[in-house]
Input
Amino acid sequence: MASRVVSLASIVRPKDLAKRRAEPAACGGGMDPATWDKVKDHPCYSEEAHHFYARMHVAVAPACNIQCNYCNRKYDCSNESRPGVVSEKLDPEQALRKVMAVAAKVPQLSVLGVAGPGDALANPHKTFRTFDLVARALPHIKLCLSTNGLALPDHVAAIRDHGVDHVTVTINAVDPEVAERIYPWIFHDHRRWTGREAARILLDRQMEGVAALVASGVLVKVNSVMIPGVNDDHLIEVNAAVKSAGAFLHNVMPLISDPAHGTRFGLDGQPGPSPAELSALQERLEGGAKLMRHCRQCRADAVGMLGEDRNEEFTLDRLDGEAAYHPEAREAYVAFVEREMEDRRMAERTARQALPAGAETMLVAVATKGGGRINQHFGHAREFQIFEVDGAGCRPLGERRAENYCQGGFGEDERLEAVLAALDGVSAVLVARIGDCPRRRLAEAGIAVLDDFAYEYIEPSVMACFARMIAQRQGYDTLMASA
Ligand code: CLF
Ligand code: SF4
Output
C-alpha cells in the first residue's frame, strides 16, 4: 500500500545538530571485547539487545533496609518496577524451578535479576543462594541485581565471587539535603537513622559501593527516580557523579505517584514528571554519563522481553515437576539473532548514507511487538517507540505508553484521543497496519502514517522515512517557489 504523508510544513523542526551525538555503532563500536561480551545479550544494558533478549526477575528478596517516599511495601520495589503487588514471593529453590521452566519455554531468556520486592542486598543469603543454584544449572544466564546501595560495600566481594556482572544502584541524590526529602529513614549498623544523618550515610555508602564495584570490573548501572521539585535539577549533579564514578549507564525514570498505591509522595500529592519534562531533562543530561532510554520500570517478578510480562504463565501452581531445558533451542535462537543483527546493521549503514544533510530533526513513532521490526497493528499498540532522527542518524528516546486503541474489533474515540496525546510532537508513525478511521484522525492532527515499512527493521525505516519526508518537503517548496 502506498504511504501517506501529510502536513509536511509542520513536521520538521530545526535543531542544533552540533549538540547531537552521532549514533554509536550498533555492535558496541569502541567497547572493549570483555564489556561487549557482558552487554551484548543483556536487554537493559544494550538497547540493541532488548529487541531480541529477555530477562526475568525472581521475587526472593522481600525485606528492605530503608524507606523511600515513593514506595509502599505492599507494592513492588519502585527502583525496578511499576507498582503492583508481586504475585508470589519465592525461596531460592522455588526460584530455580521457575527459572528452569522459563528457560525451557523462552529461548530469548538471557538474564536473571533479583530486583525486590524489597532490596536484593538486604536479603543477601536468599539472593546469593538463588544465583548459585541458577549458575550451576544454567551457566549461560547472566546474573543481575538491583539495590538501594546501603548494604553494597559489605557485599562487593560476594557479588564478584558469585559471578554477578551487572549491578543497578538507585541513586536519587548526591546531596544529603536533597536526599532527606526522599528517604525518611534507613536501618544501618543495628539501628534506625533518620533525617540528614540517614541521608548522608546512605549516599556515602552508595558511592563507596559503586566505586568498589567499578574497581572489581562489575558493570554498574545507576537508576534515578525523577521527582519534580525535589531532585529534577539536582539529577544533573547526580549524572556527573555517576559518570566520574565510572558507571556504565544512567537510567532516569519518572516518579510513579498514584495516590492509590499509598506511598508517601502519592498521599502528599507529589506529581511525577510528564513525558515532556522527562525528555527535557534527558536532553540536558546528554554528553554526561550514557543514558538508558528503554527502561520499562518492570515488576519485581517480571518475565519476558522488556515491555511484556509473562509471569502469569510461570506461577508456582503452573510449574509441574522439573522443566526440561534444551540447549539446542537456545543455540538456534542465538544464531538467528546474530544473523539478524548483522543484517540489521548493514541496513542501518545503507539508510544512514542516504540521509539528507541539514539542521533538521523530527520525532518518529513506531509500533512494534519486538524483534527490532515494525510488526504491530496501530490498533493493538499499547506503547510506541519514539525515535529522534536527523541528518546524523536516529536515536531511541524511549517509549510512550497509550492504551491500545482497538477494543475487540472496534476503536474507541476517547482512546484514540489518548493515543494522539501520547503522540504529541511526533511527525510520523510507522505501523504494520492501520484502519481508515484512525489514519484520517492522525492526518487531521498533522501526523503522517506510513505502513509501507511493515515488517522492516525499525532504525533503517525511521531514517528512510525521514529522508523521504524531507525530499517531499523540498519538492513541495520547489513547486511553491516556481508557482
Ligand atoms: Fe532486571 Fe534491572 Fe537487571 Fe534489567 S530490569 S535487575 S538491570 S535484569 Fe531493566 Fe526493568 Fe528498567 Fe530495571 S527495564 S526496571 S533497568
Ligand atoms: Fe521500596 Fe526499593 Fe526503596 Fe526499599 S529500596 S523502600 S523496596 S523502593
User: Anything to note?
Assistant: Residues 64, 66-68, 71, 77-79, 116, 118-119, 148 surround iron/sulfur cluster (ligand 2) (CB under 6 Å). The longest strand covers residues 393-401. The chain has 13 helices and 18 strands.
